[in-house]
Amino acid sequence: ITVSDLVSESYNRIQAVDGQVNAFLTLNEEAARAKAKQLDEKLGGDASALFGIPLGVKDNIVTKGLRTTCGSQFLDNFNDPLYDATVVQKLEAQNTVTIGKLNMDEFAMGSSTENSSYVPTKNPWNTDYVPGGSSGGSAAAVAAGEVFFSLGSDTGGSIRQPAAFCGVVGLKPTYGLVSRFGLVAFASSLDQIGPLTRTVEDNAHLLQAIVGHDKMDSTSANIDIPNYADAMKQDVKGLKIAVPKEYLQEGVAPEVREAVLSALKVYENMGATWEEVSLPHSRYAVAAYYLLSSSEASANLARFDGVRYGVRSEKAENMLDMYKLSRSEGFGDEVKRRIMLGTFALSSGYYDAYYKKAQKVRTLIKNDFDKVFEDYDIIIGPTTPTPAFKIGEKVDDPLTMYANDILTIPVNLAGVPGMSIPCGLSSEGLPIGLQIIGKHFDESTIYRTAHAFE
Ligand code: GLN
Questions:
Q1: Residue ranges of the chain with pLDDT lower than 50?
Q2: ipTM above 0.90, yes or no
Q3: CB count in 10 Å sphere of residue 17
């Protein structure tokens, strides 16, 4: 098989199914086929694990010369970015082939991809259902076999929740493990880029290719990087698993709880042990997250002013109107809601009551995790309270939509890594996700735990 064959397969599959799934916003076909031809000449030489692999990239990750919209009308004309994100540079160096850019909720704000200003992505398992979000395109493209590898981003669950809904493997790395340079910022203290794949092993290879210190990202960690695919192979005998009781309580659908409990049985049979623990501040996580992430978003999105980036309103007759009209025409409702919430939370007189308090809650949540990890190797629970919901079901009710991330958000607030792997099907035939949460920079134990289950 040649790289050209692989790339053709990918475009054939897109041609056949993407009309129903809507995972891709922009295809890179001409450049991808040209690159595949070049790589074919090198076939048989020294090759990396990812040589010639077709890859999809979430549309908030900047790709040189390839349109990058963030799912927003504001960036509809951002056709020719001048540089590649660090992760894309690293993958190019491994000779992957970028097939196209993947749909997402506008500026990564959402849990269903219905906030894309272009088109909602559909769940390949059943197109009446959402694929999750905000990396819905990234998860759906892998689930539908359009690409086997994709990149997503996760601020409050946006890799793990769509991975769970689409039955694929998705990892949110430890904060600081993967460079954010070239990721359009939503909430800079929470955002991480991560891999979505069909198998745990693929996932380990894709993570390996994108990690490492980057001087272009001041929060990038300078640590020794293990070999994840090797670490993955160790068995789970003696592994100490913690199961937070808050993750199996009311609000979690019985069939999700049962799927998690039977996964724990599988671990028991392999010689691991598990005990119930408590993450007592979990209940405050969603409230703290929406204050902090919206505050950061309101600052990060100030750069979209119609001057430097994106589409400028044609109606404006003076400078102030240019800012105002460009922003009111360019941003969708959810983005505006977050900017207003964040601006309010940061305004003088309210700062201590909201932003500062939310920061304190964040510390309490992190301390909860630290405490559990003193006695246990890994935390296991569900990724989401329910399997995928129907398209249109929650779109008019932001608070219900926000509550969907209740089990993924604490992980971002604590900065620890978390993965979702498939662990069963619901009565409606939709995938259920098992969430595996590790210590800071201990992705190895996550891969080991995930691989043993697979
Ligand atoms: N659904 C959450 C939100 O809307 C998380 C999004 C994300 O992780 N990017 O903020």
A1: none
A2: yes
A3: 17
